[in-house]
Amino acid sequence: MTREADDLLNRKAYDFYSYVKLFLRFQDDFPKEAAASKKDLRPMDKSTGVEDIQVDFSWSKQKLLAFAISLVNQALERYTTYKYKDALRLLEKAHEIRERILGDNHRETASIYFSIGDVYYAMGEYESALKYYQKAASIFRSALGTDHLGIILTYNEIGNVYERLGKYENALKYYQRILQISESVLGTDHPKTAMI
């Protein structure tokens, strides 16, 4: 796949990438030593040096929330280009804004926790990823209820982290919970239930 095709697919269906955790890697994304030895297949973090972002909290709530959305979009761009440290800085600032305006138990704040978990997962820092996914899951349970389809993706990511950590029984518990929610909400004959 060419880089142009990947960029086009990423712009058109970025949710596909986050859902299946598909990371397309290209030869120039790897250090030459890693390509030769095949020891480390994780791309380098090519941080661009996102400076400390100053926020004027005297702005209106709408303007601050719009700015937070802009930061999240910039973080997504950094994330998809393997600039994980920059993505974290941007997400942390967006979290600060949303937490101050919406509170720590709001769905939008939970979505930032989820995104931070995604970045840590991509960096291979699974314990940190788990911490943020669990924060997101706790808020989503409070905001949406325990049997809402919206929590399935978060439970899936928690299961994935436990799987990566070799804690298969914990992973299985989350995967089984996903199945229970899907069967309850969508039914046992639904294609998504079958996929789960």
Keywords:
196 residues, mainly alpha, 68% helix, globular
Secondary structure: elements and pairs:
Blueprint (H helix, E strand, L loop, with lengths): L2 H10 L1 H7 L11 H6 L23 H20 L3 H19 L4 H16 L3 H19 L7 H13 L3 H18 L5 H5 L1
Helix pairs in contact: 1-2, 4-5, 5-6, 6-7, 7-8, 8-9
Quick summary of this structure?
With 196 residues, the chain is mainly α. It has helices spanning 3-12, 14-20, 32-37, 61-80, 84-102, 107-122, 126-144, 152-164, 168-185, 191-195.
Describe this structure in words.
- There is one protein chain.
- By secondary structure, the chain is mainly alpha-helical.
- The protein is built from ten helices and no strands.
- The chain has helices at 3-12, 14-20, 32-37, 61-80, 84-102, 107-122, 126-144, 152-164, 168-185, 191-195.
- α4 packs antiparallel against α5, α5 packs antiparallel against α6 (107-122) and α8 (152-164) packs antiparallel against α9 (168-185).
- The radius of gyration is 18 Å and the shape is globular.
- The two termini are 28 Å apart.
- Residues 11-44 have low confidence and may be disordered.
